[in-house]
Amino acid sequence: MRSFSRGFTLIELLVVIAIIGILSSVVLASLNSAREKGRDSRRISDIKQLQLALELYYDGNSSTYPANLADVAPDYISVIPTGPQGDAYQYASVDSGSSYVLAATLEDENHSVFDNSVTGTDVGGSGIDCGTPVYCVRP
């Protein structure tokens, strides 16, 4: 008498589970990279919005930049943005208000935005260190 079993063997199940595990780890690694890029894009966008608000402030206040970033809200920007993980952007008014340094720390140290970033330590006497991974802008 023959006994036929209609099911999967333990080895077959283990192979399928291993393949699913490998595929899911590849997908999760890709998702983390995409999330980092998304957060960095938001940081760069926030910096550009803050730059615009600072220029509007400069035009309306005797050609000087504010001593504190909070001074541009709510007249020139509705709310001072914070980073996607709740971190604040660095700001310093330098040269008696005639210039500023605005900085955000990015997660991707090889981002193309660093090609146009201000670099150096204590830029303009601001106390802000502008080197990878810190993206800095000036007017």
Automatic annotation (TrEMBL):
<dbReference type="GO" id="GO:0015628">
    <property type="term" value="P:protein secretion by the type II secretion system"/>
</dbReference>
<dbReference type="InterPro" id="IPR012902">
    <property type="entry name" value="N_methyl_site"/>
</dbReference>
<dbReference type="InterPro" id="IPR000983">
    <property type="entry name" value="Bac_GSPG_pilin"/>
</dbReference>
<dbReference type="Pfam" id="PF07963">
    <property type="entry name" value="N_methyl"/>
</dbReference>
<dbReference type="InterPro" id="IPR045584">
    <property type="entry name" value="Pilin-like"/>
</dbReference>
<keyword id="KW-1133">Transmembrane helix</keyword>
<keyword id="KW-0812">Transmembrane</keyword>
<protein>
    <recommendedName>
        <fullName>Type II secretion system protein GspG C-terminal domain-containing protein</fullName>
    </recommendedName>
</protein>
<dbReference type="GO" id="GO:0016020">
    <property type="term" value="C:membrane"/>
</dbReference>
<keyword id="KW-0488">Methylation</keyword>
<keyword id="KW-0472">Membrane</keyword>
<dbReference type="GO" id="GO:0015627">
    <property type="term" value="C:type II protein secretion system complex"/>
</dbReference>
